[in-house]
Amino acid sequence: MTQSRQPVEDAFAASLHTDDLTDKQRAVLTACLTLFSHKGFDATSTKDIAQLAHVSEGTVYKKYRSKQGLLDALLAPLATVVVPRLAKEFMGEVVRNDSTDFRAFLAFIVHDRMTFALSNRQLIRIVISRVLSNPQLLTTVLSQFSDAITETIEPILKRYQQAGQLVDWPATKIMRTIASTVFGTVMPSILLDAATVDIDFATDEVVDFLAKGLSPAGRH
Question: How far apart are CA 152 and CA 89, in angstroms?
Fold first, then answer.
């Protein structure tokens, strides 16, 4: 299974061209995303940001005042522009990987989301830390996926339900169950920056668990 979608960094860079920013400001925010994602927020210095953006440290501080200000400026387009874009691309992949067998469909989603989460573990860790102090950020992000689920995934799930392969639950509840299991599996690696997870092995385990739990027979 391969991912053909645009990486977070590329989607973020594209989103900056819709804002009223100078070239230097775009370079600073792009550098922040790269460094915060790969090194972590705390381990990144303004000197690191300036060097990667090819600007002076004074330019880094001129608009955003502090590293925290940079983080806030980074998260705003991520929540309102990048996440919707990536959600749309993911839903397109879901449709293209549709299958008559629910287990095969489930395997694609689990493997895909695990790969995405582990590939962006530093960024997810940063978002989690901000969500704790700004719950509205999580509400904004989740609403994007809720709309996408209703429009794209619900008809697919209904077909599995009609075929007797899937429990008769609302689509949002099913996807919430899948998401919580997937991210619960990879979260220790995200939070602790542990060794890379064997995604194929983890996918098989999670699919076995979910396929049984979401089976109509498993609910009796």
Answer: 11
